[in-house]
Amino acid sequence: MNSPVNLLTEPRLHDELQQRTEECFRHIHALIDRQRALEDSLFTGNLGLVVYHYCISLLKDQYIHNRAFALELIEQLVNDLSTPGSTLNSYQYSGGLAGLGAVLQFLVDEKAIDADMDDDFQVIDESIFEHALDQINKGYVEYMHGGAGALLYFNMRNPNEIITHYKEQLVTAILNQVKEDPLGIRIPRGQYVWTKNDDYDLSLSHGLCGVMLILLSVLEKGGIKNAGQINSYLQAATTFMVNLKREIKNETGNYSFFPSYLPVKSTIDEINRLAHWPDSRLAWCYGDLGWVIYFYRFGEYTNNEELLKLAEATGIATTYRKTLEETYSSTSHFCHGHSGLAAVYKHLYMISRRPEYKAACDYWLHNTICALNDELPTGFYKPKNLETSLLEGLAGVNLVLSSFLTDRDLKWQKFMLLS
């Protein structure tokens, strides 16, 4: 694999990259500035546009009108809840009421809206809790579309007796599901249309990594009775994942240190006999980077130097993966594209200050700009109705670009488990 390229070592190249980033940002913002999405979800719809426009308004004074647009849009989404036109008709974080609650709480925390979440959202909170608990008990645990997303939302809320009760019950339900796993670690395989029927998912977006990050967030915030149970589980699950690390083997295309999936019927002995893992993409959603993020955070929380060293060694090694064959990254979008990699490496740089992450950050920002130069003239995202999507469209790409144009915290990363 190639060595990292650090654009910061060439001031002229770095200045040029900043100029091209701003040009692309302005172009994309002009395309989506007054657009509405076809549906209302957080990751692909109008709720995501609320996040987009509000966070862009923090960038510069010239974008202050985007704040007004964000607040107008969130008011409309709330007013539409009781109408047939609303698509926020599930409890989920990615596309339903938990996502709506998370955005509203964010705006309350920002003092952008005046709302009493404890009172105004009480009935909806109860519905989110009941549906999330039911779905967890049926095996739908993961972050984006399962019950852990509701737990993430309740953890964003200011604590009160009811919210704390909801969090404790959801934690208990998740840990009870884990006990059903023969290894006592993995979450159930919720059967969504994209999941593999014969594997346990270990990813950030749809699997174990995302759930462990959310449980860690609950532990960090504190104030619940079953914190000790969370800590015991995370200690065991972390040890399990650390023991899954394998050496990479570039000549045979085994670029990943950790698996994205584990076969359902695999025993510990069978797992231990595997010398290498089938390759996985390098991305925000799947692959080694999710575990690097988790190891840094849990290592910091537990003051575990060995875990922090593992996070650093693994993370730095990923910066050498650059080609399509090594990463599966081929477009500019956030979920499993170039801009998502730029965002993750920036997050890792901010928490570690390792120059290798800044180099990777610059590299993937550069690749994002190059991809956009091909995508924008052809309207690449328009036929897919993805221009306004945070996860797989231009809105998400532009949030990443915006974060390279300011030293301010634009705060959108919290919705992506990057804070």
Description of the structure:
The structure is a single chain. The protein has helices spanning 11-32, 46-57, 65-79, 97-109, 117-120, 122-137, 147-156, 161-179, 208-221, 227-243, 268-272, 288-302, 305-318, 324-327, 338-352, 355-378, 394-403; strands spanning 199-201, 261-263. By secondary structure, the chain is mainly α. A two-stranded antiparallel sheet has the order 1-2. Helix 15 packs parallel to helix 17 (394-403). The two termini are 30 Å apart.
List the helices and strands and how they pair.
Elements: H1 11-32, H2 46-57, H3 65-79, H4 97-109, H5 117-120, H6 122-137, H7 147-156, H8 161-179, E1 199-201, H9 208-221, H10 227-243, E2 261-263, H11 268-272, H12 288-302, H13 305-318, H14 324-327, H15 338-352, H16 355-378, H17 394-403
Antiparallel strand pairs: 1-2
Helix pairs in contact: 1-16, 1-17, 2-3, 2-17, 4-7, 6-7, 6-8, 7-8, 7-9, 9-10, 9-12, 12-13, 15-16, 15-17
